[in-house]
Amino acid sequence: MAIKFHPIQWLKQTKSTLALPMAVVAVACLVALNEFGYQRSIVSAENMSLQQEKRGALNALLQNMLDAETGQRGYLLTGDQKYLDSYGDALVQIAPDLDKLRDLYVNDRAQVAQFSELSRSVSKKLAELEVTIKLRQLGGETENWMQVVRTDVGRSYMDAVRDKGNALISAASVDIAVSRIRIDQSLTISRVGVTLAALLGLLAFHLYLRQTQKLNAAGETQRLMLARERDRMGELVRERTARLSELASHLQVVQEKERDRLARELHDELGALLTAAKFDVARIKSKIPLDNPELSKRLTHLNESLNAGIALKRRIVEDLRPSSLSNLGLESALAILTSEFSERTGVQVTTDIEAVDLGPDAELTVYRTVQESLTNVAKYADAKEVVVSLHGYEHHIEVSVDDNGRGFDVDNRQNASHGLPGMRHRIEALNGVLKVSSSPGHGSRVHAVFPRPKIIAASASRIGDGNADGDAFAADATSSPPSPHIS
What we know:
This protein has helices at residues 7-17, 19-78, 81-105, 112-138, 142-150, 153-287, 293-320, 323-327, 330-345, 360-381, 419-429, 453-462, 468-479, and strands at residues 348-353, 385-392, 396-403, 433-438, 444-451. By secondary structure, it is an alpha+beta fold. The longest helix has 135 residues, at 153-287. The relative contact order is 0.06.
């Protein structure tokens, strides 16, 4: 599969990835240019200082030579000794000047030859000065020293000293000018380099800002996409939860209908068979001779078995579809349920049941909640005492089952069986709340609160409306006294 090349996209990616390298290059160039300018300026400044020192030493040498010549001429013309003092002072300064210049030019290959010529010219001039002074001091014929003075030897020597000295001074001045030009060039290069580095840094910063903006925009787009996906998933979860709730409600309705059908079939078919069998036993018993105790005993046992079967059938039918609930009402049905539970298990059951006006579905929900709670008590609680309570308030109903059994850890038993989730779904289908509280060794409590049927019917159109009925239900559910909990 061929990979397509997109120049524009490649250029954008290249620009975004060049920001950091450009910034690094800008900093490196700035540091390099500053270091280069600094080193070049240091070398130029040292060279300027050296040339200044050369020029100063050369000027001092020429001045001292001029002073020596002036002292010599004054002494020759006047014979005054004070001119010799000036001459001697100048000679004393000339030797150090030559030594200093020799040290300065010893490493200068280009001008050491010129300095050597200057040194020889100075030596010749000093020798000429010394000869004339000695001739004057000897006091011989006047023409002897005058003849020496009238010659051009002294002037030519002095001119040579001046020419060589001025040449070296000019060379030093040229070197100073060149050093100044180099310093100016270094400063100019540094300025231009700093400017270019600053511009490059600004460009890198601009690219960085653009890249940051693109990253922020991409992050915001990603966040919006995640938010939309989260909302979609939340809506999907709510939709599936609603479907599962509808399915669970439908299954419970189907289950209750199936129980009702099975209860009717057991009541009608099995009841008719057991009743007919019992009548047949009664007829047989009336016709057998009384002197056959073994047969009479067998018939009595058969009659008791039929009675037990009829009682078992009645209990199964009542468990499937309590006829007492349809015929006698919720209060009586709960009383019968708790009484039979106490007789069957030996657990003492205390009831605190009020007469409440509920619809058939709500009555069946309350009955199944109590029934399932008592079944759990019989299976797991090992309780000695149970309290069943049912209270009706203005806007809601409360039902609770408390026991003093062994208790359990609610968090670890959430998914242990389907009994509690089934009860919770029944209560929540009535817009109610089921709360199970327990702890090991301190018994258990099943407490359900749900609104009265008129609030249930109106809840679909009043959810979140803050109406008086909803507020009153919430207030009553919070403030009503709880059912007694056995400790």
